[in-house]
Write a structure and sequence with these properties.
2 domains; binds pyridoxal-5'-phosphate; 5-stranded mixed β-sheet; 12 strands; alpha/beta
Length: 379
């Protein structure tokens, strides 16, 4: 609630937005001291900005990290984190159930520039251990997209540490409210702050948190590449953070209640939620996510795409939107949204079929959410 700011008498309770691209100076030595980092201050908006600094300080505090750096989107954050952590040429061992955009970044941009991505089933610790030989980086998601599986980050970090391989965790779905991977031994955490941190589907932002040296390297690269976050989006993301804990608590309660209710609804062949008994991640999730698993779940409709389309047309409150983490309940359809870059065979291997629906459970009254799915699936 209070991180990333110092409240003094007669200052505004909500921080001011500083959109200035540049700050003025009257003294060359002063400019020199600020530009070199010797003295705290701001000089050019691509390098630093007051609103970004507040957001970064708050995220670092929440993640238990030494420092954090923000970026214009989650993808920009991921890119700068990978470049900072793993000098090429090297192998990146990644969870095979990766956000589709991340998979595309690895294959289409990083692979041609000297990285070798290797995708493993991170629920299989033996497979992870074998893949880690000679690797330069492990890339995990705390809760996978879209089937909401939970890798044993603690165990994987243990294996990676023995081999001296750094671990990068995409903590977008869990947020630091539910899981702090750095406390579990991970080196660096990134977020698409577009999702739960912002929380209202009205901004794009990313953030990387970790040790001061890696964050400084990521920041320097981000300044050179230019994908820095705008002041207004930083301000919005920080405003989102102020209510993150209460939202996440409600998202978590609602998603588990909806997952349980969906199991008995007509046409539903399977429900994927890590805290449902019978989930392949149940034991790990209970240990790593003791306060809840956030708002995400998925389910499979036996009738495939036609059944998904029928359900969508019948919704009264729930809407279709190809993102997640907002206050309102939305569904997405991985086959044409997050996982459209994968071939049908690759999707099938992951368990993503033409009946798979991903749900971002909002913070509405849970009865209203369940009732809308019930009436949409009736008959
Ligand atoms: N990581 C995960 C888990 C995501 O779901 C997304 C976006 O959907 C991203 C990263 C990329 O974030 P952004 O869209 O903010 O670039």
């Amino acid at each position: 609630m209070h991180s990333g700011r110092e409240i003094k008498a007669r200052t505004p309770l909500a921080p001011a937005i500083t959109p200035a691209a540049v700050h003025v100076y009257e003294d060359l030595d002063d400019y020199e001291a600020v530009a070199s980092g010797e003295r705290q201050g701001y000089f050019y908006g691509r390098n630093s900005n007051e609103n970004r600094s507040m957001l970064e300080a708050a995220i670092a505090e929440l993640e238990g990290a030494e420092a954090a750096v923000s970026s214009a989107s989650g993808m920009a954050a991921l890119h700068m984190a990978i470049l900072a952590l793993a000098p090429r040429p090297t192998t990146i061992v990644a969870t095979r159930e990766l956000y589709g955009g991340t998979m595309s970044l690895l294959r289409q941009d990083l692979e041609p520039s000297g990285y070798e991505p290797v995708f493993v089933d991170v629920l299989d610790l033996d497979a992870v251990s074998a893949a880690l030989n000679g690797a330069g980086l492990v890339l995990l998601e705390t809760i996978t997209n879209p089937l909401c599986r939970v890798p044993d980050v603690e165990a994987i970090v243990g294996i990676a540490k023995e081999r001296g391989v750094p671990v990068l965790v995409d903590n977008t779905f869990a947020t630091p409210i539910l899981c702090r991977p750095i406390e579990l031994g991970a080196d660096v955490v990134m977020h698409s702050a577009t999702k739960y941190i912002g929380g209202h589907s009205d901004l794009l932002a990313g953030v990387v948190a970790g040790d001061a040296k890696t964050v400084a390297a990521a920041r320097a690269r981000s300044v050179r590449m230019g994908g820095t976050l705008g002041a207004f989006d930083a301000w919005l993301a920080l405003r989102g953070l102020r209510t993150l804990e209460v939202r996440i608590r409600r998202h978590s309660e609602n998603s588990l209640a909806l997952a349980k209710a969906l199991r008995d609804m007509p046409g539903v062949a399977a429900v994927h939620h890590p805290l449902l008994e019978g989930s392949p991640s149940y034991e790990v999730a209970r240990r790593l996510l003791p306060d809840g698993a956030g708002g995400m779940l998925a389910f499979d409709l036996a009738g495939g795409r036609a059944a998904v389309q029928r359900m969508m047309k019948r919704f009264r409150m729930v809407s279709f939107a190809a993102s997640l983490g907002g206050v309102e309940t939305t569904i997405s359809y991985p086959e044409i949204t997050s996982h459209r870059g994968l071939s049908p065979a690759e999707r099938a291997e992951l368990g993503v079929g033409s009946g798979t629906v991903r749900v971002s459970t909002g913070i509405e009254a849970v009865e209203d959410i369940v009732a809308d799915f019930e009436q949409a699936l009736a008959g």
